[in-house]
Design goal:
Chain lengths: 219, 219
């Protein structure tokens, strides 16, 4: 397992190269904070982009495939995908329109996704997906049965060809524009968990667990 | 301008059809709350998915194209794209692993995106993009000059072929599972704006504007 990957021609960033991050550890930190990806694939020449959940384990990304299963019929043989994870961190308001920007962290992975077909491996992949989103939840839940396992699809994508982009910090204006009296600054944006909503049919005495109260993606 | 669109074969949802929303007004409400989309396109047979900002005006989506410009060289002639907007609303924790889900609202648009090349139209498109993200900001900012306009690319995508998916509400468990003592419920998730961070080089006396303090995407 290498700690970094040289960018391929396809993932090398030409524009805004100063925002590029090719370090594997930095990319994994972004992947581990997120849990929703956008999977792109081609069917009959048409690109499709489907949001779904994912989990990372080592140098593999496991992708929950149910939503895309109609499109992914050929997925047993492997399908070329682009998986993109984007974390939005803020609006960057500059004095000029042109220098307005966003603070964000994103990872783009290119590769071939394959369906996990072996029952034991699929169960383990589902566990990893669940643990990625909410550690500890798997053990407390009723486990998948054979029928449910069959109705669920999971794809595995090796993380080999990837790039990451990060934009952080204040607005950068043209020197002449700093004389403008326009307000400039950053409006931070965060995905925040609210107060958990108890299910109406909880068994008597069941309390809201700590992991539901203090849910955060910060890693 | 029609108020609804019949789903095409390509956008009709086969799985989880109960979550499908084909109403144009409902899809536009989702598009208007979001401002980051994931644009999918194909280059040399490989799908790419790039996050970028967008704005909707009438039945058009304007997409900020700078990030993807290397890939979108042929965009003057038009390029087949899939633009997906996803708003995440919560984690849905069921008693069984299989019935775990997410609350979300998403829109998928298929079509041909074309670069806006006319200078006047491009300026107007950039204004609409800016107003979509932060109404009123355009008028306060230093306007784009010729050089900046040339360095910016904007794509227009007509909203013709689209579908939306919405999952809201509590977990739905198998009847037998309601006897489990596992906690179930929803952890709401919201993109929240924090306290604005003033730029270090503001002119003396410039105050943080109201639109930066109370920023919200709720429409």
């Amino acid at each position: 397992m290498s700690q970094s990957a040289a960018p391929s021609v396809r993932t090398r960033l030409v524009r805004e190269a100063e925002r590029a991050v090719y370090d594997r550890a930095a990319a994994y930190k972004i992947l581990d904070e997120g849990f929703i990806c956008h999977v792109g694939f081609v069917a009959d020449g048409q690109p499709f982009v489907i949001p779904t959940s994912y989990g990372r384990v080592g140098d593999s990304l496991y992708i929950h495939g149910s939503a895309a299963s109609r499109m992914l019929r050929r997925v047993d043989e492997g399908i070329a995908v682009c998986v993109t994870v984007t974390l939005l961190d803020g609006l960057v308001l500059a004095r000029s329109i042109f220098n307005h920007s966003m603070n964000y962290r994103s990872v783009v992975i290119l590769g071939t996704a394959r369906a996990v077909t072996d029952g034991k491996e699929k169960l383990e992949a589902l566990r990893l997906l669940s643990e990625h989103i909410l550690p500890g939840r798997w053990a407390e839940s009723r486990q998948p049965n054979e029928k449910e396992l069959k109705a669920t699809s999971v794809l595995r994508l090796p993380i080999e060809e990837f790039s990451a982009k990060v934009r952080q910090g204040p607005a950068v204006d043209d020197e002449a524009d700093y004389a403008f009296r326009t307000w400039a600054g950053v409006i931070p944006l965060t995905l925040v968990a609210g107060e958990p909503i108890d299910d109406a049919r909880l068994m008597p005495g069941v309390k809201t667990p700590e992991y539901a109260r203090g849910y955060t993606r910060k890693r």
